[in-house]
Design a protein that fits this description.
Oligomer: heterodimer
CATH class of chain A: Mainly Alpha
Largest interface: A-B, 90 and 84 residues
CATH topology of the largest domain in chain B: Rossmann fold
CATH class of the largest domain in chain B: Alpha Beta
Helix content of chain B: 25-40%
Number of helices of chain B: 12
Radius of gyration of chain B: 22 Å
Distance between the termini of chain B: 63 Å
Number of domains of chain A: 1
Distance between the termini of chain A: 38 Å
Largest sheet of chain A: 4 strands, mixed
Strand content of chain A: 15-25%
Helix content of chain A: 25-40%
CATH superfamily of the largest domain in chain B: NADH:ubiquinone oxidoreductase-like, 20kDa subunit
CATH superfamily of chain A: Cytochrome-c3 Hydrogenase, chain B
Order of helices and strands of chain B: EHHEHEEEEHEHEEEEHHHHEEHHH
Chain lengths: 475, 330
Amino acid sequence: MTRKLLVGPFNRVEGDLEIRLDIRDDAVASAQVNSPLFRGFEMMLAGKDPRDALTIVPRICGICSISQSAAAALALGQAAGVTPTPQGARATAILHAVENLADHVTHFALFFMPDFARPAYAGRDWHGPAVERFTAMQGSAARQLTEGRAQLLHITGMLAGKWPHTLAIQPGGVTKAPDARDRVRILSTLRSFRRTLEATIFGAKLEDYAALTTLSDLYGWTTGDAALFLRIAADLGLAASGQGPRRYLSAGAYPQGAQRLTRAGLLDHGTLKPFDPTQITEDLSHAWMLGETAHPAQGQTVPDEDMRADAYSWCKAPRLGGQVVECGALARQAVDGHPLALALADEGGVRARVAARLLEIARTQIWLEEAAQALDPSAIFLEPFTLPKSGQGVGLVEAARGTLGHWLRIEKGRIASYQIVAPTTWNFSPRDAQGLPGALEAALVGAPVAEGEETPLSVQHIVRSFDPCMVCTVH
Amino acid sequence: MNLLWLQSAGCGGCTMSLLCAEDPNVFDLMADGGIEFLWHPSFSEATGAEVTRLLAAIEAGEQTLDVLAVEGSIVTGPKGTGRYHMLAGTGRSMLDWVRALAPLARDVVAVGTCAAYGGVTSAGGNPAGATGLQYEGQLAGGALPPSFRARSGRPVINIAGCPTHPGWVAETLLLMAEDRLSEADLDDFGRPRLYTDHLVHHACTKNEFYEYKASATKLSEMGCMMEHLGCVGTQAVGDCNIRGWNGEGSCTRAGYPCIACTAPEFEEPNHPFTETPTIAGIPIGLPSDMPKAWFMALASLSKAATPRRIGVNAVSDRIRVPPGAKRNSK
């Protein structure tokens, strides 16, 4: 028996998402992922003073705002031949890591877990705890972690004025030189957030979760909401569902001088290869965009106002060496070589994505404490910069959801071209000219659909396991 | 009071900002104030078909709608169709949905500057044809006509800000839930006066520098940013420096200028955001309610009278000369 489903509005993802499903024999036979919103940031930026990018690009996205700032600052810095001072880079990385940490917690507590509190799961032996902890807007974990997140973001208030949409992050560092009092306050806020994480998600020391090395270690984890998730995942078969392409991309998170805190690379079916950004192309065959497949440095954004019938999304289809890749916390941790993440990368489904995100929460919090400890209030935090009349720059960073790239070209002192490839552009791309489906489109194939289901739960779990940010996707 | 929240063409940052509400958290804050979310795109359990049924029930009059809150601009392109933003799963544009639902609501709230006036989504050449709900920039009339009134008789309530402050949204909604927000509580651009009766300048920590026109010459310096760095906090409405953001923060406290993100058309200042345009060395855009000649006379006097402490600190990235009689004696 075959039927078609149109799924939307797809909520508890950031931004707008619509999915078309062909269902055959009680499973998804094929999927088309549509990003139904076009705003045109790349077009808005053309012709502007390049410095204005620092005000405009964070406003692409209210959840990855600092990631957008950081990518723009890197691209402008490359064009100007300026790098952040060491402490400026540290402050930028602290801000960026705080955003990524807050986003991961938001995803787990507010976007992903509430589905397991649905009445459709009543009768499962884990349903009671899921309802108590994660019922949308009411669960005890939703409240604790929302409060914890709001307090964690005090660090952005202190170092960057506000969140989202700061102008503090600049090519040469940050506009605010934190003093000794700011530093101890940041440390206090972090210690408080650690207490929240250890009392809720982990039910144990963060270091214990970060020290897990094998899948059997992980499945033996018995505390906190992590254990609840693992129990649910085992019961619902979430390890096997939502299989990704097993090609994992990371540009390396948090630049510190010539180094990055986490490794850059492409983990291709277990083999680590260098990440070569020149191999990126954006294919427009199934996007409502005009023009040819191009590298983002040569790319254009010309929307197809007629919305031709053989396209189905405003999202372009980025490919690396012609291939589909997956990015995000799982990719980042696996490329970085964490043993548990490598094992999860091999598992490659819904459980792996979520368990690796929890791993990254633990590791990021631990790193933040060290980084804040080493803030030096006597240092210089900002190097001024002067932009050339013509030049170009690339900014590659790791947003919560994966690899984010900005490609900038300046001519006659103005922005001549600005192209952006965001994490969910990679993960939720439409098909390319070869007919290759995007990572999510492929991951949905085989998802079970019960008779009468209009918005299949299996599809919801798979989609949300990627933690999509749809406003970044098309921008 | 029930509330339907729709995310239109924006960044979602006003929702993310609302999640930063404290004392108590946003969910308790709303529930305790008698505000019930019929649906919110980031918070609610319901998705897909559950939501399209709710929208149909509202449209059919089977479900009463107290507040329609819209976050994000409304895009009208391409070619006036609104198809740059189709509400997923419905086959209809957000433009069409907003026009259908707004007259059914007791009140309509625009959350953030995009929803109020178009905002950053309408920057540059406005490629998507973005407009606000009841304003297009400073001009009355957006996705809804200037004459639009919700069932209460009130126009769209514009909680402008980029992002908007969680307190501004919470307090506006809490007052509405008590039915204590009248049209007289809104300013000329439909913004709640609970925050627009103040200027960003009020309680700005750089005010002593402002008094002496002791100016920062580049970002990260502590001096006033009006003269050189594009700061318009003396004209911008908002209590940002009174109540603080994310704890104790504000734009000017973090060393970068106020860009008047609560104002219509802030996205196109006609100069780089971090640079003050000048005519013959005089910054344009001085405080709007002060005679210019007086301002210039006072400025030159106060500049001449600047104590060394303030002059040195203004161009430093931290306090170099602390207050105190001994150090100030030279």
